[in-house]
Amino acid sequence: MSAHTHLQADLSSLIAKHPPRLNKRRAASTELLAARIEASLIKLSLIRARATQALYDHRSTKNPDTSLAQVLAASHTKLRADEKKMREEEAGLDRQLAEYETMLQFVDGSGGGGFRQVIEDWTRVQREREECIRDLRRLGWTGD
Question: Does residue 115 contact residue 109 with C-beta atoms inside 8 Å?
Fold first, then answer.
């Protein structure tokens, strides 16, 4: 407590040393600065309110019953619906692509099996069949 009393006494003596004119001038300058800051804050608040009103409360000349907020909400809903459609389309295309890749894997195969093997076997059987028919004809078979 004594430190507080001592500080208070020092402050009082310092204020008493400065001429009253200087204190009045400083107090007036401080009050003027505070008033300017307060006026600037009020102006900024007014500018912000006007900008918000101009942006979100803008009315169309064609349809004055709708505000920009309503238009933005409708646009957002439409974009979400479009996004959903695109995701569904993407999933469908991914399924088709997977089916095509499976078919290509089946056709091309990886060495053994698959459609390629069937074609190769069929070709070999046809070639051997033709050779057998030629051999049989040489032996006198007439083909009945």
Answer: yes
For residue 4, the tally of other CB atoms under 10 A from its CB is 8
Collect all residues with Cβ–Cβ distance below 8 Å to 13 and sequence separation of at least 6: none
Q: Are 136 and 142 in contact (CB under 8 A)?
A: no
d(CA 99, CA 74): 38
In terms of pTM, does the model score above 0.70? Answer: no
The answer to whether 114 touches 107, Cβ cutoff 8 Å, is yes
Give pLDDT, residue 121. 87
d(C-alpha 113, C-alpha 40), whole Å: 83
- Encode pLDDT of 23-76 as tens digits: 788 888 999 999 999 999 999 999 999 988 877 776 777 777 777 778 888 899
CA distances for 49 relative to 10, 55, 90, 91, 141, angstroms: 48, 10, 44, 46, 106
User: Alpha-carbon distance 103 to 141, whole Å?
Assistant: 43
